[in-house]
Design a protein that fits this description.
The protein contains 9 helices and 10 strands. By secondary structure, it is of the alpha/beta class. It binds adenosine-5'-triphosphate (ATP) and magnesium ion. The site of magnesium ion has 4 residues, from helix 1.
Length: about 260
Amino acid sequence: MINLVVKDLNKRFGGLHVLKDVSFEINGPELIGLIGPNGAGKTTLTNVLDGAIKPNSGTVYLNGERIDQLQPFEVAREGLGRTFQVTRSFRRMTVLENMLVPALALDHAHSRAEIVEKAMEVLEFLTIDHLRNEHAQALSGGQQKLLELGRLLMLNPAVIILDEPFAGVHPRLMEVIYRYIERVNESGSAIILISHQMDSIFSLCKRLLVLNYGDLIADGAPETVKNDPVVIEAYLGVDEEDDETHGTPEEEGATP
Ligand SMILES: Nc1ncnc2c1ncn2[C@@H]1O[C@H](COP(=O)(O)OP(=O)(O)OP(=O)(O)O)[C@@H](O)[C@H]1O
Ligand SMILES: [Mg+2]
């Protein structure tokens, strides 16, 4: 059973109040979209949930354990993982080594052979198994995103947060990421998907959270949220066409 309880989170950067009494709950393997304008606080919320930054006030409980004062590796061990808007891999390690690092460090329940086997299976699913002996720095931006998604699975997370996984990704890789989200969700993990791409959000998610400059202004079924005048005024009314990515779509695919 998955239970994430976020209660009255506040985060300030100096005079900037970026999260204002943010509260929501996740029960079970939900697939939830987190949307909102640039600067709304989506990445900041992710950073608080994964332990990278501490909130000024409020609490986060994952399956009954308080996690808002833990370090990121401890939060990962508790079962919450995230990807980054700008990918972070160990650039001088190989793809396979990148996959093994978190599990070898934190997963003491499985043998090295089991961990390697799982890593290979995940790389194959992500269509980058042929790159396993390449240094991560040799990968295209899209392939690095796939590697980060794969690494996340190595700790069997209960909850994963994907921070703009489609941004700047070639359409062919988008399909792989779509399949990944569906498979990981079906296998029992809850997913929070952050994206400016409304088509993806509406086709994948059964519930939407809308963050508007620190305020969680909506939490509900996509159809309800889509027609909520407050949400339309704050976000959906805005033409997001030019806002879908922070990078340039890549020319490279996952396979040569
Ligand atoms: N470490 C920091 N120090 C100071 N201000 C910060 C810091 N991190 C984020 N901010 C500010 O907090 C606000 C929220 O930023 P955040 O990155 O969380 O937004 P976002 O919703 O993820 O936006 P985007 O859709 O562009 O990714 C912005 O005004 C940003 O400039
Ligand atoms: Mg962001």
